[in-house]
Design goal:
The protein has about 190 residues and is an alpha/beta fold. It has one domain: Alpha/beta knot (3-Layer(aba) Sandwich), CATH 3.40.1280.10. It is built from seven helices and seven strands; from the N terminus they run H-E-H-E-H-H-E-H-E-E-E-H-E-H. The protein has a seven-stranded parallel sheet with strand order 3-2-1-6-4-7-5, with helices on both faces. Strand 1, helix 2 and strand 2 form a beta-alpha-beta unit. Helix 2 runs parallel beside helix 3 and helix 2 packs parallel to helix 7. The chain starts with 9 loop residues before the first helix and ends in a 6-residue tail after the last helix.
Length: about 190
């Protein structure tokens, strides 16, 4: 399946007009892509859509076993964001990442690997593609190898990582903030 045009419901169009101050005004999107690999929970997928919309993501690429809209469990957590953010499904994750990289995006995996640097120290690229992996296994070794940058989120408790949707939210906010500051717009 390739990227599809985004059809925004009438209520979302009205909200968009309210937020932007005029009919036909576009929602601001940043040079920001996301690759979601093998995320099995449809609620996590819905949450990722909602956060992606809030952080100005241009496009989500769903791969592997990741569920795709329309699904009631995705819609329940996305609350319409699955209709507002452009998305595509690709079966082969590495091919999808190569295509995204070919469009000038630098992949940044969210992972707890030995190569990962703290999210507090990362210098975000000008065109970022956040890569998130499976809830249990994380980002696959082959995909990690294809990501020149990896970031981790420091943990204080006994668990080694956040839920994938929460980790994505933290990293997406950091990346969006960096992209907006670079454009001189201030923090979201």
């Amino acid at each position: 399946m390739t990227a599809r045009p985004v059809e925004i419901e009438p209520q979302l169009r009205a909200r968009q007009r309210d937020l932007t101050g005029g009919a036909g005004a576009a929602v601001q999107r940043l040079p920001f892509a996301v690759l979601v690999d093998n995320v099995r929970s449809l609620w996590n997928v819905g949450s990722i859509f909602r956060t992606a919309d809030a952080c100005g993501v241009q496009q989500l690429t769903l791969t592997g076993i990741t569920g795709c809209p329309p699904q009631p469990r995705i819609a329940k957590t996305a609350l319409g964001a699955e209709q507002a953010v452009a998305w595509e499904y690709r079966a082969d994750t590495l091919d999808a990442l190569a295509e995204i990289s070919g469009r000038g995006f630098t992949p940044v995996a969210i992972e707890t690997s030995g190569r990962a640097i703290s999210i507090d120290e990362v210098q975000w690229p000008e065109r970022v593609c956040l890569v998130v992996g499976n809830e249990v296994a994380g980002v696959t070794p082959q995909l990690l190898e294809a990501c020149p940058r990896q970031v981790s989120i420091p943990m204080l408790g006994v668990k080694e990582s956040f839920n994938v949707a929460v980790a994505f939210g933290i990293a997406a906010y950091h990346a969006a903030r960096s992209l907006r500051l670079r454009k001189g717009e201030g923090a979201p």
